Amino acid sequence: MTCTRHRAKSAAAWVFAVLSVNAAPGFANTVAYTDRAAFLAAAGGALIADDFESHPPGPIASAATLGDFKYSFPATVQPTVVPGAHGGQGLGGPFDVFVGGDVVSLWHAGPTGLRAFGMSVFYAPSFDTIAADVYRIRIDDGAGAGTSAGNPALANAGGVFFLGLIADAGSEFRQLSLLSVVPMDVNGDPLLVPAYQLDDFAYALPQAAPEPATLGLVLAAAALLAAQRRRVG
């Protein structure tokens, strides 16, 4: 009898373990990336690419949808599809580039939120090394709202770097901002932020959860528990 009861308790514990392992996480976890290869490997599955080559050149109207995103921005900013820094087309300002303090907000217009978003940033030469976190992606909704990815310290020669964010299941997002902040020197005076362009968006929709397999495990565990209880009775 004791052995049978022990098996029944073990079966009950296994049911709980199955449910626990397959439950959605109870907290938001969003990881920032500054390496495109690492971002692509971690994102897995099919990613959607937007390199701006298929979009007509020129200004983007406020609240207009370009590709899969609706654009919004302050009156002092005018995002524009421009000649790219390395050929082709990219996203910049009315004089081909964004400047320090600019912000453009994107809203994913698809039927679901996103679990990943990344982009390349091309920046101009500067007199000084560029501080970390001047250029950023920021999530503006969902469980990860306020989370951002920022650049590492950058050499003053100009160049290109990558920024990306990947969210856990349950922490998907629809709104994000692409921005730059103006750092201050020791005297509180603003430092120069090199002009920049954005390009090569890569983003991913939520992955389908393996519900049928999970349900099968739970049903099998429940059947085992029922059998053990009949033996105890």
Walk me through what this model shows.
The protein is α+β, with helices and mostly antiparallel strands. The protein has one domain: Jelly Rolls. The protein is built from 3 helices and 14 strands. The strands form 3 sheets. A 6-stranded antiparallel beta sheet has the order 4-5-8-13-10-11, with no helix packed on it. It has a 5-stranded antiparallel beta sheet with strand order 1-12-9-14-2, covered by helices on one side. A 3-stranded antiparallel beta sheet has the order 3-6-7, with no helix packed on it. A hairpin with an 8-residue loop joins β10 (135-139) and β11. α1 runs antiparallel to α3. Residues 1-27 have low confidence and may be disordered.
Features:
single chain, alpha+beta, Jelly Rolls, six-stranded antiparallel sheet, five-stranded antiparallel sheet, 3 helices, globular
Strand order in space, largest sheet: 4-5-8-13-10-11
| Broad shape | globular
The largest sheet is:
6 strands, antiparallel
Q: Over all CA atoms, what is the radius of gyration?
A: 24 Å
Taken in chain order, the helices and strands follow as HEHEEEEEEEEEEEEEH
What helical percentage do the residues reach?
10-25%
Number of structural domains:
1
In total, how many beta strands? 14
Uncertain runs with pLDDT below 50, 5 residues or more? Answer: 1-27
* Termini Cα gap: 10 Å
Q: Tell me, what is the CATH class?
A: Mainly Beta
Name the CATH architecture.
Sandwich
- Beta-strand content bin: 25-35%
The count of helical stretches stands at 3
SS-derived structural category: alpha+beta
- What is the average per-residue confidence, as pLDDT, rounded to a whole number? 84
In CATH, the topology is named Jelly Rolls
